[in-house]
Specification:
- By secondary structure, this protein is an alpha+beta fold.
- It has nine helices and four strands, in the order E-H-E-H-E-E-H-H-H-H-H-H-H.
- It has a four-stranded mixed β-sheet, covered by helices on one side.
- It starts with a strand and ends in a 7-residue tail after the last helix.
- Bound molecules: glutathione.
């Protein structure tokens, strides 16, 4: 019995869902609204004391932090390996996961996507100063990931890895902004990878309901 606690709009929840889908693991997505008035529900704080999503449970074993969940999903279940056996390729995968957490999420999602796409959709003005200051870091992130990406179809070459599962939700949102669309044009490996991953069943099956 596998349960993932969170909301389908969350990029981190989608990373975990992509790994579960690619691994072929059945799970329930248990809805949690961390942005509820009054803060995250108290039972969720018991599962995730920082009030973030996702949280995860498998046969009574509870876990949070998406990087840990992704590795657990790969190692605890049968299905295709989502981590390279080769030690250098695995290190490269872990490096990409760290870049995504430390740099891509705050910059591409909060600095640009939320300002340009989500706020506009909600009828709110974008913070142009915030976007302009994120753009310099976004250029570094895109050129770095482009430099680390191998010839496809996946980020690390022939094997789909946790790096793909974690990168796709962030890069797909970034690509929805005009800034992201333009910047990704200068990164042919990343663009081809993103376009190709978007055709996978796991991508379609994990689409946020507000994007279907
Ligand atoms: N370090 C956490 C980060 C997860 C995270 O930031 N999730 C976002 C949604 S994509 C969240 O819960 N945001 C709620 C908040 O910041 O209040 C992880 O890896 O699981």
């Amino acid at each position: 019995m596998v349960e993932l606690f969170g909301a389908d709009y969350s990029v981190y929840v989608r990373s975990a869902r992509l790994a579960l889908a690619e691994k072929g693991v059945d799970y329930s997505l248990v809805p949690v609204d961390v942005f509820a008035t009054g803060g995250p529900p108290s039972d969720h704080l018991d599962r995730q004391p920082f009030g973030k999503i996702p949280a995860f449970r498998h046969d009574g074993f509870s876990l949070y932090e998406t990087g840990a969940i992704l590795r657990y999903v790969d190692e605890a279940f049968t299905g295709p390996d989502l981590q390279p056996r080769d030690v250098q390729a695995r290190a490269r995968m872990n490096q990409i996961l760290s870049i995504l957490d430390a740099h891509a999420y705050p910059t591409l999602v909060w600095g640009i996507y939320v300002e340009r796409v989500a706020k506009t959709r909600d009828g709110l003005p974008a913070d142009e100063v915030k976007i302009a200051s994120a753009m310099g870091r976004a250029r570094t992130i895109v050129s770095t990931l482009e430099g680390l990406a191998q010839d496809g179809p996946f980020l690390l070459g022939q094997q789909l890895t946790l790096a793909d599962c974690h990168a796709v939700p962030m890069l797909a949102l970034f690509h929805e902004s005009e800034e992201g669309e333009l910047l990704l044009r200068s990164a042919p490996r990343l663009s081809d990878w993103l376009m190709s991953f978007r055709t996978r069943d796991s991508f379609t099956a994990t689409k946020p309901t507000d994007q279907s």
